[in-house]
Amino acid sequence: MKTLGIIGGMSPESTITYYQQINRLVNQKLGGNHSAPLLMVSVEFEQIVQCQKSGDWQKAGEILAQAGQKLEQMGADAVLLATNTMHKVAPQIMEQINVPFLHILDATANVIKTKGLYKIAVLGTAFTMQDEFYRNGLTQRGIEMLVPDAKNQQEIHRIIFAELCVGKILPTSKQFYLQTIAELAQQGAEGVILGCTEIGLLVQQNDTVLTLFDTAQLHSEMAVGFILGDEL
C-alpha cells in the first residue's frame, strides 16, 4: 500500500470523518485487520479562519503548503487536503510538493459525470459558494454550478462555522438545509454537492430524493484508490 499524507484540522470534525472513512474502506477492500498507512498534519483551524476573514489567502496558502511539504518529508506518496474551501489555495500547495495532490473536485466531478448529470447545486461556506475558484473548477470539469440565494448562503455559512465545525448537530439546521435543497431542486438542480466536508454530518442521502454528492466521502474513496493502487 502507498502512504497518504492528509492536511487536516479544517475542521477537526470533518478530519475525523476522513480518517474513519479511509480506514473503513481499506478494511472493506482487504479484510482482516487491514488499515490505511496515513500521515497527518493537523493545522490550527482558528489561524486559517482568521486568514479567511481577512482575505489573506496568500498566508493561508503558505501555511498549508508548509504542511504539504512536511508530509512529503515524512514519506507521504501523495497529499490530500481535507477541506473544500481551502482548495482555493491548492495551486500554492501543488507548487511546493513533488508528489501527487488528490484534488477534491476531481473526486466529485468524476462521480457526477458517471451519473450523466450536469446542473448541480453547491452548498458550502460563503467562500466556496461565492468565490470563482469552485465554480471555475466545476466548469472546467463540465459541470454547471447553482447556489442558493444570498440570504440562504449566509445562514448555510453560519451553521457550518458556528455549529458543524464545533460538533453541534441541530434538527432545526438540518431542516433548513433540506428546505434549501428542495428550493434548489425547483430551480433545476439535478443533484447537490455537499461542498463543505462537515455537511455530511448533518444531511444524508436518505433525507432527500435529490442525489447528494458528499465530498468528504468521495474524496475518501479517491484516497483509497490511490492507497491500494494495484491491490484493488
UniProtKB/TrEMBL annotation:
Pfam families: Asp_Glu_race. One of its GO terms (molecular function) is amino-acid racemase activity. PROSITE patterns: ASP_GLU_RACEMASE_2 (PS00924). Keywords: Isomerase. It comes from the Bacteria. Belongs to the aspartate/glutamate racemases family. NCBIfam families: asp_race (TIGR00035). This is Aspartate racemase. It comes from Lonepinella koalarum.
